[in-house]
Amino acid sequence: MRISQLFGKRLREIPADADTESHRLLLRAGMICQLSAGIYSYMPLALRTLRKIENIVREEMNRTGAQEVLMPSLQPLELWQKSGRETAMGQTLFRLQDRKERDLVLGPTHEEVVTDMAGRNVQSYRDLPFTLYQIQTKMRDEPRPRGGLIRVREFTMKDAYSFHASEADLDSTYKQIVQAYRNIYRRCGLPAIMIEADSGAIGGKDSQEFMAITDIGEDEIIICDSCGAGANVEKACSIKLKAPCNPVQDMEEIATFEHKTIEQLTAFLKISSSQTLKAVFYHADETMVFAVIRGDLDVNEVKLKKLLRAADLRLASDKEVKHAGIIAGTASPVGLRGIKIIADESVLSGTNFVAGANKDGFHLKNVNYPRDFTADVVADIAKAKAGDNCTVCNGILRTIRGMEVGHVFKLGVSISDKLGANFVDEGGTPHPIIMGCYGIGIGRLMAAIIELNHDNKGIIWPMSVAPYQINLCPLYSDNAEVVKRADSLYQELINLGYEVLYDDRAESPGVKFNDADLLGIPLRITISPRSLEKGCMEVKLRSNPQADMIALDDVIAKIKASLTHTCI
User: Fold this and answer.
1) Which of 38, 310, 315 is nearest to 201 (CA)?
2) Which pLDDT tens digit goes with each residue over 76-116?
3) CA angle 533, 539, 545 (to 5 degrees)
4) Residue 424 contacts by C-beta under 8 Å, 6 or more apart in sequence?
5) Is the same domain home to 508 and 439?
6) What is the DSSP letter of 396?
7) Can you give the residue range of the structural domain that contains 319?
């Protein structure tokens, strides 16, 4: 491809609305074009990279025995109502009606469709197991698209679904897919770690995410350097730091005046936050819930939502708290009636806590569980944090940020049971098909590759996913010998099967070099009058600071060696 004919313009200025490095570089390189918030067109260079990523994904999925299908983006809302996920997905679903006023959605994922398809084709255990996958467009009405391709409203995803007659068989396929994912990231030149995760609105049990570690990642990860265990902060558990545990004393009321927050209270009483109990009020669906937790900890709302089996969980407003007869700032579970109380297990560690007196201007000293209050449920609803101890090896946890590049989980029978996708076992008894689900966002994966492979000049593509392998860069295009040599080499490389981006523009060396660095093509071949005088061409890997002067007769051999060495 000659750059003079390449569709798309490089930008000299950094776009003001680009908030991540991958977003800035994709726009500057002319690889994507924004149509609307979270909606992008892929330009020729980006599409070549996307196709290469897709091919890697296909090859690795096919090695597991998975079969590729293509399912419709347009889905009947009725399927989502049957599965019970219409409410869980909420406003994320794009909804529409056809001319006969039948309700439809634009698929954000395809569990319902693939389960319906499996149910129509599976009769007995002999039809199992199998794995289906597709590379398909998804639509989600994201409230806050950001980061270019990192969080968008329309995107391409590889989603796979496995179907089984036993949990043991699901476990076997799950391990195969996990290995396939590791192979995909390795071949794409992207370091990724696997962590424990929450499966969210999709449901299911065992759930892992693959994370690219980057400071711009949306996810906070809790990780132990001692044993390597890691989890998304939504899922992470920890051994909490111990609170003071002294002999139990009699509860007494004390005046605390306007000191209502944990910070104000601890400063006034000269105690640590771990000696206090914090009250947080939520609405779980239509029910008010009182969460009580040690003052040095925060409520993990994902854990709380899952514990309550709530479709929607939100903080109660000040008006709602007041209407319930609760005095904000001095609330506690002591003597509270008529509200469901969920206590974090931290109330069991420590004694003689300070808690609200449910009376303005007053608190209670020496509050102890279960002497002074009880809870409907005591469970781990705390957010793990840096400095806590690891539940696996007791090591010290730390936090890092990551960007999700893949998600695998065991869905079980939560959807097949509701949609009536059953199989008959050897004894003739029907059972819901056991399922696994596995997703990779292709565009997001491309953005993650850039986030971890760039410098201050531009992208540094891994060879396996680069839009082109070679950037042929002749300087001073008014020099007949330079043009002749460049045209001849271009044709020779094409005949040898290499992918070449030929910068045939009448631009200055500075412009050509800057664009070459921006586009990040792995190997640059520079031809100039000066190099030809020496009987050489300049060969430079994008990832290396220095170029090599190679004799004309040795250039092809050097190119072959360089490309072979950099292939993943």
Assistant:
1) 310
2) 999 999 999 998 888 999 999 999 999 999 999 999 999 99
3) 120
4) 123, 124, 125, 430, 431
5) no
6) B
7) 252-379
